[in-house]
């Protein structure tokens, strides 16, 4: 159905005169008459009766009017859903409990007037493809693995270096330490079943192992963070890594310890990625917010792979 004819019908019905409808729509009275006649032909009914005072709705016109108004409202909502600046800003945060999710919560508190759609994609290739297709506006990603550079139309900025912490149960040999050096971790089993080969976090931990001679095991099924915490709490020989800004809650009787890692501190480098031609105005607001509010860490005394996106 031609929305211009529907819009003309509604204007004429509300004005009661074709001449006033023409003035409102900035068209000629003849154009109004032609549009109404075309709509009547499509519907197979008469919508108006001409009277000395103008145009009155027939019984069919009265029946059609509320549906015509709803058609126009639906059309407006459809356009608004994709109109730059009016649709929500769509951002990929990888996981709901990670640092990127915390950064977006902070952005939402600072800018509650901006509508957000937060999604969780899995791998970096999917995220980059979604940015390039316009399915999302931005993504938080940690690294660009060797041999897989970003396409030239993808922009990025490193927004957060998140220190790693060691998580142990109460009976672990390092549980009583206030901090541990990377060298002290050699020989200890660090269990991380969430590491998936080919992902950017797998590339990060592969380099961490190669650099410092650590033992990271990704064996066994990944039943999620609750199962990981239960196992670490009950197994004195196991520990795991987690980011300083990762939000996890566990029962008090688990007795888990979060221990800073030093000398150097491995940091997981989170970057924001977006398409260079993305016109969404809220994207610039997000970038400015992260530049001024994201907690940073001095490069001195930290470690990250040499192939990550530079600051």
TrEMBL record:
<keyword id="KW-0805">Transcription regulation</keyword>
<keyword id="KW-0804">Transcription</keyword>
<dbReference type="Pfam" id="PF03466">
    <property type="entry name" value="LysR_substrate"/>
</dbReference>
<dbReference type="InterPro" id="IPR000847">
    <property type="entry name" value="LysR_HTH_N"/>
</dbReference>
<comment type="similarity">
    <text>Belongs to the LysR transcriptional regulatory family.</text>
</comment>
<keyword id="KW-0238">DNA-binding</keyword>
<feature type="domain" description="HTH lysR-type">
    <location>
        <begin position="1"/>
        <end position="58"/>
    </location>
</feature>
<dbReference type="InterPro" id="IPR005119">
    <property type="entry name" value="LysR_subst-bd"/>
</dbReference>
<dbReference type="InterPro" id="IPR036390">
    <property type="entry name" value="WH_DNA-bd_sf"/>
</dbReference>
<dbReference type="InterPro" id="IPR036388">
    <property type="entry name" value="WH-like_DNA-bd_sf"/>
</dbReference>
<protein>
    <submittedName>
        <fullName>LysR family transcriptional regulator</fullName>
    </submittedName>
</protein>
<dbReference type="Pfam" id="PF00126">
    <property type="entry name" value="HTH_1"/>
</dbReference>
